[in-house]
Design brief:
Layout lengths: L13 H15 L4 E7 L5 H14 L3 E6 L10 H11 L4 H7 L4 H7 L14 H19 L2 E6 L6 H13 L5 E8 L8 H9 L5 E5 L5 H11 L5 H10 L3 H13 L9 H9 L4 H11 L7 H7 L5 H12 L3 E4 L4 E4 L2 H10 L2 H15 L10 H11 L3 H17 L3 H15 L9 H14 L3 H12 L11 H16 L3 H14 L6 H17 L3 H18 L2 H18 L2 H18 L2 H16 L5 H17 L3 H19 L2 H12 L5 H18 L2 H14 L6 H17 L3 H16 L5 H20 L9 H17 L3 H21 L5 H13 L3 H17 L5 H17 L2 H14 L36 H11 L4 H8 L3 H15 L4 H10 L15
Parallel strand pairs: 1-4, 1-5, 2-3, 3-4
Antiparallel strand pairs: 6-7
Helix pairs in contact: 1-2, 6-7, 7-8, 7-34, 9-10, 9-11, 10-11, 11-12, 13-15, 17-18, 18-19, 19-20, 20-21, 21-22, 22-23, 23-24, 23-25, 24-25, 25-26, 25-27, 26-27, 27-28, 27-29, 28-29, 29-30, 29-31, 30-31, 31-32, 31-33, 32-33, 33-34, 33-35, 34-35, 35-36, 35-37, 36-37, 37-38, 37-39, 38-39, 39-40, ...
């Protein structure tokens, strides 16, 4: 038998190697890249990774190499944690430990180098672990390029998938290359990993490489390298392997070992023909290694095989020489050469052999020394369950769930608690009752961000009640209240209000007053989320009364906050503001930092948002920033307040201050919800000022990080901004699609008119622009949806206080004005009313937009009047003061098309994109072929080259269609052409610069 047959060279992968090398080069230039290698098992993904790692090592990069394992009990963050463990134990270990010393305790816990330290709790804890690993990678990237490789992503735990998405979203400009391999499953694969690859594939810095089977010439090159001169083997290897690299290599090995005409014909036979030639001791070791399901250090294998010594060493050396076993340097242990080989060997084990080996592993892992192994609780659970010992499997599964929770791997904790619940149902004395397992599984799902699953699990738990829905059952009442909390997190406010209502009804008639106050407070908040402001007010008043009787400061502060918003939305803004100020005072007296921050934010949001008291809202937000800074919460609550202030400054037109505030907040390196809010605020500023690429980066990051968020808090603002960005990119069709997705979220249960109104206006804006450009879309119901939502906004606003009603109706009036544009007769008087409305509310950006549209409407009526000129000048003045470069470009474009003389100074330095830098055919400086054309004829020729019809040219240049025809005839005669194509060719030969037209609207 051939011993240590040299691994064939990497052949036939020139394009894939070039793509990975280009990604590494890009990262070395300071721009993150992510590459997913997707292909069939054995096709050669790992060889590509090995080649990349060699190149990275030669470039002195820091390599983190880890792989997922094919067991459901995989510990959280396993591939990355094991990669860090290997790095810390490498020759560079001491240097890396110094680099990462600020997070030594958390890292030691994560990689299981010592007993766990106390864990953080609450919904933000999961994000804090993601942020910990993000900062670790960031610190390593400060010293060198970091290459993070995750193999077998199809088996990765949910926490690892979340981490990869988090890194892609947050490391756009860092020297980090992420590479992951994914084994192709069925064509209909809808696994979490496959869905994540699809989601991230839309990101500009993510590439998905389909690793195809080798071509025949590559197989021939492999044969030549391993068996020079044996051309007779090429056809055989090609036919048997169909280009699969692993099968080709195994076929070649088998052919070199014996008679090629008697070769096995299937993968199973190929592997077994090699394995079955081993001696019995070596075969026994191979079977044990195959069933390990995780890292296998030598000591563990020695224990499982009941001793080591020379016999075991000889058996292992034989298996290594035969190319069946390879040494795993990362664990000082062993694994089989390929996952396909492992699959075959495990499938060949007899049922009794499997049970016996699983029991041996479980017993070995219970030894005191084995507690140092990473993920030991999860592996114990796997082996005891596979060994058929339900009692021990249940205990180990509970331990695995608790261990996952300690490192904030809540998705894995959720999965373990579910398994513990199933096992508990088979036992008379389970370590944790099934009901308790379901409750803890629900909480873990909630903390993992899967609110829908949390609700479903509590529903299952409630169905176990002996006397369901019987008044006076405090435990059941509190379970319904928890269901309400999870529903609020899922953005399902109306359902949450019903759940809290059931909880209230089930509370004991007397006693449990603290719980009653908490439930009533939650019920009031859910009612407000659902838009039932009257019921929210009355319920908050009941909660407030009870909280004061019981001396519950936190519940009192929260009830006052809900009461304040309800009063402000319904009948009395002044009373609402006073309630919020009282909430702040209560929190201060109770010295509750989180409630103090919450009260400042609530007050600032109310003033600078729906009530349009912009200056006072900004002032409150800034006071809150200083207060939470003193409380040591500036990186979390402080960043949230800065985002509120920045959004107020944006609407107020104080854009330089907003830019500075956002930059200050970003220096604090926020994470979690605060980072999402700050990215949205920064994207809003960047879109307004024409910094479109950075805006797209931020919106992509928010989309990646909030992909599982179905609620409206982030999704609606995100999709509104995406629509605004698409409009500046001359893509009204894409903008309308984003609005449609936003309406889907609205229709799932958002009644917050303050969020919905700008989204609906963006839809009307995109629809009008499509009509103006003559780009009719098939009727997919979007127009009817927009009209319905405008009507809903009108009805909802009618029941709100004047300040809120006016703001919402301002957007409704904009929708109506956009509808007149869509119908081809834009109403200048409607746009004049819109301009006056926003000007009275001191919001210059939408005011400028309305002036621009009024000028367009007047010019379309052939009214080359002083009014049109003045409207354009007003738009130009406001846009220039803001530094709104894209809007300035549109003002200039409209003035040129309408032949209106206004002075448009050069954009401010901070407005990075200039009109000259934007794409699209330019109106040329007259060259030899065009010197005979007048200025108006040059304009007509440019529009003609853009593909516009005579009617569209007339609309764009505000002249009659007949006049356009006259100009076209004269152009043809002067430049000696006979068709539009020829005329366009002349124009493009004479064009030296490029400038595009941008049509969009602001993002109030």
């Amino acid at each position: 038998m051939t011993e240590r047959l040299a691994s064939p060279p990497l052949v036939g992968r020139e394009d894939d190697v070039a793509a990975l090398t280009a990604a590494l080069d890009e990262v070395q230039q300071g721009r993150m890249a992510t590459v997913f290698l997707v292909g069939d098992a054995g096709v050669g993904k790992t060889r590509l990774v090995q080649d990349l790692v060699s190149r990275a090592d030669r470039a002195n990069a820091t390599v983190l190499l880890g792989g997922a394992t094919d067991i459901a009990e995989s510990p959280p963050f396993w591939p990355v944690a094991s990669a860090l463990r290997t790095l810390l134990r490498s020759p560079r270990g001491e240097e890396v430990q110094r680099q990462l010393s600020p997070w030594a305790d958390q890292l030691e816990e994560l990689v299981a180098l010592r007993p766990a330290v106390p864990a953080l709790a609450g919904p933000q804890a999961r994000v804090q672990t993601l942020e910990l690993l993000h900062r670790v990678v960031l610190r390593l990237a400060g010293g060198s390029v970091v290459v993070l490789v995750v193999e077998d992503l199809q088996w990765a735990d949910r926490s690892t998938l979340d981490l990869l998405a988090y890194l892609v979203a947050n490391l756009a400009d860092k020297r980090v290359l992420v590479v992951a391999t994914h084994r192709t499953q069925l064509a209909s694969d809808s696994s979490a990993a496959r869905m994540m690859i699809s989601e991230l594939g839309r990101h500009r810095q993510v590439k998905c490489l389909e690793v195809a089977p080798l071509r025949r010439e590559a197989v021939a090159a492999m044969v030549q390298a391993v068996a020079p001169g044996r051309t007779d083997l090429v056809e055989l290897v090609w036919k048997r392997s169909a280009g699969n690299a692993f099968i080709a290599e195994e076929t070649l090995r088998a052919a070199m070992d014996g008679d090629p005409t008697g070769l096995p014909t299937t993968l199973r036979e190929l592997v077994l023909s090699r394995v079955n030639r081993l001696s019995e001791p070596a075969l026994r070791a191979v079977r044990a290694i195959a069933l390990c399901d995780g890292p296998l250090p030598h000591r563990l294998l020695e224990t499982v095989l009941d001793g080591g010594g020379p016999d075991l060493f000889d058996a292992l050396r034989e298996a290594v020489n035969a190319g069946v076993v390879v040494v795993d340097d990362g664990t000082d242990g062993y694994r089989l050469r390929h996952g396909l080989m492992t699959d075959v060997v495990v499938r060949e084990l007899l049922p009794g052999e499997r049970l016996h080996l699983h029991r041996l592993y479980a017993v070995a892992l219970e030894a005191a020394w084995a507690r140092e192994l990473p993920g030991v609780d999860a592996r114990l659970a796997h082996h005891w369950q596979s060994a058929g010992d339900v009692q021990r499997a249940a205990a180990a599964t509970v331990a695995a769930a608790e261990a996952a929770g300690r490192v904030r791997g809540y998705a894995e904790a959720h999965r373990h608690w579910l398994r513990a619940a199933r096992l508990a149902g088979q036992l008379s004395a389970a370590p944790v009752p099934r009901s308790g397992c379901l409750e803890r599984a629900a909480e873990a799902a909630h903390l993992a961000g899967d609110a829908d699953q949390a609700v479903a699990l509590l529903g299952e738990r409630l169905r176990m009640a002996e006397t369901p829905d019987e008044p006076g059952d405090l435990d059941e009442a509190l379970l319904h209240a928890r269901t309400g909390q999870y529903l609020v997190a899922a953005g399902r406010g109306a359902e949450a209000a019903l759940a809290f209502g059931r909880a209230t009804a089930l509370l004991p008639a007397v006693g449990a007053e603290q719980e009653r106050a908490e439930v009533l407070g939650g019920h009031a908040s859910a009612l407000w989320t659902a838009g039932d402001f009257a019921a929210a007010q009355s319920t908050a008043e009941r909660a407030l009364e009870l909280a004061r009787q019981m001396g519950l400061a936190v519940e009192e502060a929260r009830a006052l906050a809900t009461l304040g918003f309800s009063l402000a939305y319904r009948e009395d803004p002044e009373a609402g503001e006073n309630a919020l100020r009282e909430s702040l005072a209560v929190a201060e007296r109770a010295a509750e930092p989180r409630e103090i921050a919450r009260a400042y934010r609530s007050l600032a949001e109310l003033l600078s948002g729906p009530l349009n008291e912009l200056d006072r809202g900004i002032e409150i937000a800034r006071a809150g920033i200083e207060r939470v800074r003193a409380l040591g919460m500036v990186r979390s609550a402080g960043v949230g307040l800065i985002s509120v202030a920045a959004n107020g400054l944006f609407r107020r037109g104080r854009w330089d201050e907003a830019d500075s505030a956002i930059a200050e907040a970003w220096e604090l390196a926020p994470s979690g919800a605060e980072a999402l809010e700050l990215r949205l605020a920064r994207a809003r500023m960047d879109i307004g000022r024409g910094r479109l690429a950075p805006a797209e980066d931020d919106l992509e990051a928010v989309e990646v990080l909030s992909a599982s968020t179905v609620g409206p808090r982030y999704r609606i603002p995100l999709l509104t901004l995406r629509a605004g960005l698409a409009m500046w990119q001359d893509r009204p069709d894409v903008a309308l699609d984003h609005v449609g997705f936003g309406l889907d979220v609205v229709e799932q249960g958002s009644d917050d008119v303050w969020l919905v109104a700008p989204l609906v206006w963006h839809g009307a804006r995109a629809r009008a622009e499509l009509a103006r450009l003559g780009l009719r879309r098939p009727d997919d119901g979007t127009d009817a949806r927009l009209r319905r939502h405008v009507a809903d906004l009108t009805r909802t606003a009618a029941s709100s206080v004047p300040a809120i009603r006016d703001s919402v109706m301002g957007f409704v009036e904009m929708c109506k004005a956009e509808d007149s544009r869509a119908q081809g007769h834009s109403d200048p008087q409607a746009w004049e009313r819109v301009a006056e409305f926003w000007q009275a509310r001191q919001q210059p950006y939408p005011t400028a937009y309305a002036h621009l549209r009024r000028a367009e409407a007047l010019l379309a009526l052939r009214a080359h009047s002083a009014a049109a000129t003045e409207a354009l000048r007003q738009a130009e003045r406001l846009a220039r003061g803001l530094g709104a470069t894209p809007m300035l470009a549109e003002v200039a474009d409209l003035a040129e098309r309408g032949r209106v003389k206004i002075d448009v100074p050069a954009p401010a330095p901070h407005a990075v994109p200039t009109p000259e830098a934007m794409t699209g055919p330019a109106r040329p400086e007259p060259a030899d072929e065009l010197t005979a054309l007048t200025a108006r004829e040059l304009e007509v020729l440019t529009e003609l080259a853009n593909g516009h019809t005579n009617r569209e040219i007339a609309q764009r240049l505000f002249i009659s269609e007949k006049t356009v025809g006259v100009h076209v005839s004269r152009i043809y005669a002067k430049i000696g052409v006979h068709s539009r194509v020829q005329a366009s060719a002349v124009l493009f030969r004479s064009t030296h610069g490029r400038r595009g037209k941008h049509t969009s609207g602001p993002v109030p």
